[in-house]
Structures are given as C-alpha cells and as structure tokens.
Amino acid sequence: MDGHTHQHTSGRRELQMARSMCWHCQSEVSGEYFCDRCVKVQPVSKELDYFTCFGFPRRLSIDQQKLEAKFYELSRAFHPDFYQNKSDAEQTISLGNSAMLNTAYRTLRDPIQRAEYLLDLEAGSVKDIRTTPPADLFEEILELQDTLDEFRASDRTSDTAAALRTQLQTERAALEQRQRDMESQLQQLFGRWDALQDRGEATDQARAERDRILKDMRDILSNRTYVKNIVNDLVATIA
Amino acid sequence: MAYSDKVVDHFNNPRNMGSFKKDEEGVGTGMVGAPECGDVMKLQIKVQNDTIVDAKFKTFGCGSAIASSSLATEWLKGKTIEEAQKIKNTDIVQELNLPPVKIHCSVLAEDAIKAALADYQKKADTK
C-alpha cells in the first residue's frame, strides 16, 4: 500500500520544514511536505513562514505567476477532496495545510499585506508597536471630519452645502494624490529592501539601513491606513 | 458579534463629545491613533487646581473606540491628575464588556488619557 515510492515528493525538495520526523512511520522527513518513505502528507509547521512555504526568499517583489503556479501545485497536493478515503489523521492534516496555504497565498499576493507580513516577521508585530502618529495628519483628519459632519447636517440644496461639497471634493483629490505618493514611496522602499537582502552584508551600516527601511515602511503603512479611512468616509459622504 | 448594551448606549448617546481650544488655560490634549484600523481619537481635559473639571473627546472609528473614549471622559471628570493616571484599559474592558478583538480600542483610550495628561503637564511646566 504505502510503497517506497518517491514520485510524489520529487520537485518539492526546495521546501523546508521545521519538523523532521514523519508522524506516521517515524522516519526522517528531509524537507518536503510528504514523507519519503510512506508518502503520507506532513503537517506544515506553524513555525514555517509564508515565504518559505512557497519557496520564496523574504523579498518584497514577488513573481506573481510563480506564486500562483506554486499555489495551485500545493493546493492540489493538500486538497481535502483527495484525502476523503484516507485516515482521519491525514484528513485533518490536509484541512490544516489547505487553510494555511490559502492564508499564505492571500497574504503574499497583495503587496501591502505582504509588506505588513514581512514587518511582522522582521521587526516584531507592527500592530504591537504604537507608532506615534504625525500630529499634523491627525489635525487634518479631525478638521476634515468636522467639515464632513457639517456637510451631513446641512440642507443639501443650500449654497452652504454646495460650497462644502466643492471643498470636500478638493480635499478628496488631494488625499488621493497623497495615497498615490505613499504607494510609490513604498515601492521605492520595497526595492531598497530587496537590494539590501540581495547584497547580504552583515555590517553595522547594513543593519542600520535595514532598521531604517523597516521603520519607514511601518510609518507609511500606518499613515496610509489613516488616509484610506478618511478617503472612504469622504467618498461615502459626498458621492 | 454584537456590541454590549453599554457600548451601544455610549455610541448612541456619547458623553462629552466636542473639543476645547488647545491653547486654552489648563487644557491638555491627547491625540492617538490605531495604525491597524486607522481609528483616530482626540481626548482633552480641562484642569483647575490639580482636578479635572471637564473632559471632551472626538473619536472617528468603530463603536467600541467611541464608547471607550466616551466612558473615559465620564470617568476623568472630577478626578485629580494622580487619580486619572491610574485609569487602566482593563477597567474600560470590564465596564464595557469588550470582546478580545476590541481590546485595542480600550488601549487607545488609555493612551489618549496618558497623552492628554502628559500634554497638560508639559504646558504647566513650561509656564
């Protein structure tokens, strides 16, 4: 039944696993999602990061086609439909792996989520660190929210409402431009990150550069969220 | 997931919404934000003789964030600076019955209190 076939595992050697022993036959599993000996599917380790899971280095530019191809390959390998006649243990692993794979794919596919995830891995959780918000941005947002309230409360047919709408439309255009600026700043930072990783230097200078890039990315990403929220409010109110 | 009655109450009837002039005598302003959800919170206190005589807030965010800051202003009124320092986000969580996913809203409110107090102190010291 469980023959010593290797055909299922070939081509998956680049994938690493943090665990090393097959849950089924206890033989050594040398870095694939399937045991070399008994061909049983292996649970993807929780320690495994999404980049490694897809066989990618920790870079912020990703070949979308390669990502998709790998996703389909692994989806087929783990899909619960193919485990219906297998043991309960294998069905559970197949479900767990599939769920992990889907989350990993969704995260890596989107550039912003990918960057947030990388920050998570490289600099501790972005979410745990309270970035001191730029006071001027907050002032601006609060002021805009006041204007929005004023507009909401106004008689829409009045001249005041018309003037407010024009003002809000101008603000919206300016904020959308700022969003685009932030996105191109992020793109630049992504490029700097990847270049730094490619150089692979271990100097103090490289470390300082690394920290600076991560911090700048985090700042832009959080400011981007604030701006995105206010733009959404603007669009919903004046549209 | 449903909001607790207390959250809904604060959301529908926010207490002390509004603002003071930032440069007004005895006013401390705290502005904080949650980068993960983009919520923005402004909380202000007005202090006379070491006691918070009035507090106001403006929050743009989810119901829990609004309720947390609304509750915070209620609690701040009448407290001394020292007492106000002791308000913890866990007190807010308990009072409002916030679920785990909304705990960061109470953290935001605590941060806003701390920021407002620090701002007041800074202004008082430089006088």
Please provide a brief summary of the model:
The complex is a heterodimer of chains A (239) and B (127). Chain A is an all-alpha fold.
Tell me roughly what share of residues is in helical segments of chain A: 55-70%
Helix fraction of chain B, binned, reads 40-55%
Low-confidence stretches of chain A: 1-18
N- and C-termini, Cα separation of chain B: 49 Å
Instruction: Tell me the overall shape of chain A.
Output: elongated
Mean pLDDT of chain B: 92
Computed CA radius of gyration of chain B, to the nearest angstrom: 14 Å
Poorly predicted sequence stretches spanning 5 or more consecutive residues of chain B: none
Verbal overview:
The complex is a heterodimer of chains A (239) and B (127). Chain A has helices at 50-53, 64-78, 88-109, 111-123, 135-153, 159-199, 204-238. With 239 residues, chain A is mainly α. The radius of gyration of chain A is 24 Å and the shape is elongated. Chain B is of the alpha+beta class. Chain B has one domain: Sufe protein. Chain: A. Chain B has five helices and three strands, in the order H-E-E-E-H-H-H-H. In chain B, strands 1-2-3 form a three-stranded antiparallel sheet. The N and C termini of chain B lie far apart (49 Å). The model of chain B has no long low-confidence stretch (mean pLDDT 92). At the A-B interface, helix 5 and helix 7 of A face strand 1 and strand 2 of B.
